[in-house]
Amino acid sequence: MKVKRVSVKGIKYFLKDVPDDRVVISFENSISVKKLMDELGIDIRFVGYIMQNGKPVMKDSSIEKEDEITLIPILSGG
Fold this sequence. Notes:
With 78 residues, this protein is mainly β. The protein has one helix at 33-40; strands spanning 4-9, 22-27, 31-32, 47-52, 55-56, 62-63, 68-73.
């Protein structure tokens, strides 16, 4: 089975321990955006917007090889 790699941007807001705002994850099996966030320990309730290769997607979107996922936190204010 081929190993897939995905780049995840915007991660530092959700995981304070990571040294950079981008991580590269490798996996073998098909994976959804939600499953990826679960594996990273990111609570979906705090994700306001998900982009896959620059296009908005839902959390159940399937990740393909070499995709770039961007996680944008919920924004509030007034």
